[in-house]
Amino acid sequence: MYSLPQHKHTPNLHLKVCKNNSPFHPFRVYCSATSTPKSNVKPLVIEPRLVPVVPRVITTIDEHRPMNNDTGLQSTWSHRAWVTIGCTTLLISLGESIKGAMDSNMWVEPIIASWVGYILADLGSGVYHWAIDNYGDGSTPVVGAQIEAFQGHHKWPWTITRREFANNLHALARAVTFAVLPIAIFCHDPVVQGFVGVCSGCIMFSQQFHAWAHGTKSRLPPLVVALQEAGVLVSRSQHGAHHRPPYNNNYCIVSGVWNEFLDKHKVFEAMEMVLYFKTGVRPRSWTEPAPEWIEEIQTSSQIQTQ
Prior knowledge:
The protein is mainly alpha-helical. The chain has helices at residues 77-104, 108-134, 144-155, 165-186, 190-204, 206-213, 222-230, 236-240, 259-264, 267-279, 300-304, and strands at residues 2-4, 44-46. The chain has one domain. Helix content is 49%, strand content 2%. The protein is globular, with a radius of gyration of 41 Å. The two termini are 63 Å apart.
């Protein structure tokens, strides 16, 4: 800024009157002005004009965000083949159980074993879900891809409703095939086959039950809605609590029958403490979720494409 001194001039008038008796000579007035500077004069300040600077807005696009018609959500022939083999394996196991029950005229034990398999499948889904939600990353051997996928699911949970059937189940179908097929071929005990067939079947289809838990009631088949409301399949409201803070409950995704017990008695929190004191590894549920894992809201255009 620049300042210029400013001086004010105060006029000092001296009057000199000449008086004449003649009517032809009027009065004459003589004026003189002198200037006296003042010491307390404020300087004149000239301020430069301020031009507002408009900040640039940089828009970034998450390259990992699932887009409409994403090929990663579509089924391939390999996916369909594994799901077909997995379903065939389950049918062999259940068929052996029914055949053995008919031959031995023993029905109660296989039915009870099947019910136990259904209950334990829900527990198993919760333990596995808790483990991959809290430990490991994309570089973890064997299950790294599933860990990364589940973390992405927390940010974009609605994408599971757009994932095609075989794409959603093929990984579990492959695991079930390798684990169950030898039992289905070489074991002929109807009780064992009843337990294995139902338990592995619920585990294999747990991802589909999971997808239905993210669906809207108006878009789901009436039978699925009825099973959810009856508690046979995990409900939408129960699983929805898992996707809200503190993100450390309601892990079971088959029927959800174990969720209340596990959360009320803090079973997973106790397991986390044991693992922490044994290994020093902190679970992700002990800290605030990373920004890239916080759920994004589904846009209207994405809803219309479903």
